[in-house]
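Case study: peptidylprolyl isomerase.
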Amino acid sequence: MCNLRRISLAKVNPTFRYYAAIKTAESHRKSERLPPGFGKTTPFSLFIKENFASRKNEQPTEVFSNLTKQWKNLNEADKMKYVDEASRINEEKRSKFESMSETEKEELREQAKNLREARLKRRIRLERRKKREGQRQMSGWMLFVKEKAVKGVADIGKKQQDIIRELAVVWKSLPKSEKDRDNTHIHVFNSFDFLAHYCSLDFHLLEDCASMPFFKLTSVLLFPIFSGPESSAVNLVGHARCILNVVPILLILIVVDCDDCDDRELARLQIGIKKRADNCKIRSRKGDTLNVHYVGMLEDGTEFDNSRFRNKPFIFTLGMGQVIKGWDQGLLNMCEGEQRRLAIPSDLAYGSFGSSPKIPSDASLKFDIELLKIEREGDL
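Here is what the predicted structure looks like once written out:
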């Protein structure tokens, strides 16, 4: 704790920094936090635990949202029951901890310390991953796993290690030509990583360039020159130099990458409006909770799911990965009461895994979706 406080107060004079570190350590000793297993139980957590198990058939996010609303609507007398029970449990935990020997307490403290350090290291790794710092270049094997396990929908009943083990068997059985194809793709992927750093452009923007027609690609690369708040003379020269150096390389990479491409047009997400809303007061955006009815169909019109048969709308949070990518993208900017038809390519649906038994692998899907209600925190 002292070291962390010294880091956060690095620009403060040494005397004050030393005093703050000592006072922090003293206050930490007075109100010692109990290790995991002896932590504080809250009345709300007791309420959730008591009512959560009876709703196993509902979506966890929906259950938690409904139970939160119920908790807020409880009267003070009912809440006090949970408050008293939580106080009793906390007192028992503290008494049990105090009755332990110093050796046992020290072991628990050491375990808690190791757990905190592991969580901190994980947070650092995630932040570095966001900034793309210290990452090794992706290999053909890593790209293969990304396409099969990340973009597809793996069996949620399996552990991650089991999925990787199965994919490793498939990878080893692939012919050399297939592996070389993945390695060719990865050269383009790693080159985009270089371009992102070299040009100060968004990596995910460049990652999508290989599937763009040339005129779209050109407009994407030229856009930073002629727009944006940083369109000063210095930045113009920098972007121009970047493009003059990068465009020839990028074109070569795209030509190489498309050696084994077929001539058919790449499938895209298609959005059609079946019925417009009479009075659109609010439009959906990322983070909204949507209540929808939907009918899911295969490309030949075979229906595989219908929420109306269950007499219950489907509820999810838009843009948070709770549904397939085609939904997260296709239901943006939608009004309450509006009806849309989405034609979703397989890479934005269930990918090469499919969803057994009704949805085969690499299946393009169609959905008729009606937006019933938008729930937005703070605005509604």
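For the exam, be able to explain this: The CA atoms of residues 73 and 126 lie 38 Å apart.
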